[in-house]
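hey so i finally got around to running the thing on that chain from the lab meeting. sorry it took forever, my laptop kept dying and i had to restart like 3 times. anyway pasting the input first so we r on the same page abt which one it is
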Amino acid sequence: LFRSNKKTFQKVLIACVGFLIFVTFMAVIFHHFADTKDEPVSAKPNKVVYLTFDDGPSKNTKAVLRILKHYDVHATFFVTGQFPEYESLIKDEFKQGNAIGVHTYCHDYATIYASSEAYFKDIDKANEMIKRQTGMTSPLLRFPGGTSNTVSRKYCDGIMSTLSKEAIEKGYQYYDWNAENGDGNSSLDKDTLIHTALKEVEGKDSVMMLMHDGGGNEATVKALPAIIKNLKKQGYEFKVIDATTPVFHHHIAN
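ok and heres what got predicted. didnt touch it at all, straight out
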């Protein structure tokens, strides 16, 4: 009888110890969650890319629009009046959900960078064109060559410092870039443009990609699908420039 009671006692004792261990474990878990439930959760920053096209609209713009629509992405077009026969494509860009910005009307450095007055006279002409096609003017600017260009020094010393300041004072915002596909050199082939674009975005969570849909940029059209597909695969979200977009400003060298 004593041996039987001893075995029973041992079983009860083991059960009690096990129960106490379980209760202690649950208390620790509860205390941990109680202490951490209000702590902010760190999340990886969203990866965003702004595709931008300069120098159009031109004979290449329709193809660019078809590609953007096919992949369900949007871009920002910094337009010019260099090819007036394609002006109506600005309306198509706008209706498709893309953003429209000003890249000047004539895109002639000697003309626009001669003086502040000459630049904003040209900008006004470009915005008249945009208003004809969209019903509104645009506050978005991109300077030909970017604010870091030094070519403008040939025409007016210090003009970029002056224009960048006056543009903000007049209610505009200007956007440079932190990545490009290299098609400013229109002799480059499709594969080179793809390689350059993907190399340029490495390590960047926020990308302003410079490309061109001007008259000599057929290779850009051919490269665009692969660039979009690869950026999507990397997890980038495609956005157009608006009031919430971070500014991408270069160092002003003139």
